[in-house]
Amino acid sequence: MSLNVDRAGTAFSFKGGMLPMTVMELTSADPEQIREQLAGKVSQSPAFFQHTPVVLSVEKLSEPHLALERICAVCRSHKLLPVAVRGGADPIKQSAWALGLGWFPPQEERVRNLESVSQSLPEEALPSPAPAGTAPVTNRIHRGTVRSGQQVSAAEGDLIVLGSVNAGAEVLAGGNVHVYGALRGRALAGIHGDREAGIFCHELHAELLSLAGNYKRLEDIDPQLLGKAVQVRLNDDQLTIAPLV
Amino acid sequence: MAKIIVVTSGKGGVGKTTSAAAIATGLALRGKKTVVIDFDVGLRNLDLIMGCERRVVYDLINVIQGEAGLNQAMIRDKRVDNLHILPASQTRDKDALSAEGVEKILDALSKDFDYVVCDSPAGIERGAQLAMYYADEAVVVTNPEVSSVRDSDRILGLLGSKTRRAEQGQDPVKEHLLITRYDPERVNHGDMLNLEDIQEILSIHLIGLIPESEAVLRASNQGVPVTHDQKSDAGQAYVDTVSRLLGEDIPLRFHEYQKKSLLSRVFGGGRR
């Protein structure tokens, strides 16, 4: 999640993103063997090899040291751009950094880290698990008041709150945020950059409204709109708040 | 099995200990066998409000650490039968509280008592979380001001997630709102939040409203829970609160501004 400050004075802003990425899972550490297999693949589907960024996963390898530089050279000669390494022992991490590559912890560990983070959140803050086999868009309905200090999020879809969002609480959604009650806390919609996302509430007192990283504080909101049922949308990087008729 | 009631608020100084003492006394006066536990380890106050500070030998931490039995540590109230006090330790800190120790004590007390009232410390740290963890019902004490309302809101969030009932997926903790230090005159002038605003923000059931009253301070300093002062508005309001806790339907009092009569203005008849 990111909030950009006054546009005129900043050179950049950080934004969260989830980009599709090809993972190249290595089962051999031998650069020559990799070269042979790559050569075969390129002839099968040349369209894929257009400076495609890849993450080299070395989790299946047990060697503490790798000829990482040579493996990268092999990849580049076949128009694959290694951008990061996933997994491996400390020496591999160090050599990845020395080559200017990023390093990700092994996948298994990352899942565990995520779990421990979720456990420390209030129970209600957990996103509901997506039913298996349905579309990846997962909307979430929260019944009851979202209280100060609580955070409720729908990472991918819309968040619908049947109740109020109190001061000091935070609601987030990859899609739209709907609050069927008073919105007194912070509401962030389109957290992955969806510029079409909006915020809708029955009674506007929000501490903060944010759409795709653009935000308005309570102080910036026209006092005439406070307490009204409104919709908030993004127009040319500006949040516009309009009463709901 | 006893009902375990936690008296909590988040914010300090809103009247948790006063309310815990008054509610426990009120329950005992209604014939319920009641024990009130001070969870504010390190800042022991309940014994002062209950007027038994000179009779403290052992405390909650001694019992948790096996240095004393429950019956040795519990103090019998001199004014009401059926009422016992389990004081906190003044010399230790809240790290001495353990979840297993608290559970053991509450289990033991549940067998003998009808009500266990837990007086929570301020804040949302260990002491406060342990005081609420095993609760069946919660009395959330709130003053008519914004910071107190926000802290109560935070506590309500924790009651819904960090209690045994929440973690084990049982029926949620029954939440009650108790508004204290309510001054209808100042509410009328807009200095204080009014009853409806507080209820709208917290959206839980109102169990009682205690007016701002000189009787409360007097009672604290004398070590007599204000429930005993039946001439005072605060004492009567706590009796009403206890009746509602016991499931009775009692109309709300003391929430409307009454203009002082000319006579009381002339003779300065303050509220009792």
Automatic annotation (TrEMBL), chain A:
Protein family membership: Belongs to the MinC family.
Main function: Cell division inhibitor that blocks the formation of polar Z ring septums. Rapidly oscillates between the poles of the cell to destabilize FtsZ filaments that have formed before they mature into polar Z rings. Prevents FtsZ polymerization.
Ranges of residues in domain Septum formation inhibitor MinC N-terminal: 12-82
UniProt xrefs under Pfam families: MinC_C, MinC_N
Subunit note: Interacts with MinD and FtsZ.
Source species, domain of life: Bacteria
Region (Disordered): 116-136
Entry-linked InterPro entries: CAP/MinC_C (IPR016098), MinC (IPR013033), MinC_C_sf (IPR036145), MinC_N (IPR007874), Septum_form_inhib_MinC_C (IPR005526)
The entry's keywords: Cell cycle, Cell division, Septation
HAMAP family in the record: MinC (MF_00267)
Keyword Cell division in record: yes
Originating species: Modicisalibacter luteus
Native organism taxonomy: Bacteria, Pseudomonadati, Pseudomonadota, Gammaproteobacteria, Oceanospirillales
Protein name, UniProt field: Probable septum site-determining protein MinC
From TrEMBL, chain B:
Superkingdom per UniProt: Bacteria
Cell wall biogenesis/degradation listed as a keyword: no
SUPFAM superfamilies: P-loop containing nucleoside triphosphate hydrolases (SSF52540)
Pfam families: AAA_31 (PF13614)
Domain called AAA: residue spans: 2-150
Gene3D superfamilies: P-loop containing nucleotide triphosphate hydrolases
Swiss-Prot/TrEMBL keywords: ATP-binding, Cell cycle, Cell division, Nucleotide-binding, Septation
Keyword presence, Cell division: yes
Subunit structure: Interacts with MinC and FtsZ.
Family in the record: Belongs to the ParA family. MinD subfamily.
Function text: ATPase required for the correct placement of the division site. Cell division inhibitors MinC and MinD act in concert to form an inhibitor capable of blocking formation of the polar Z ring septums. Rapidly oscillates between the poles of the cell to destabilize FtsZ filaments that have formed before they mature into polar Z rings.
Protein name: Septum site-determining protein MinD
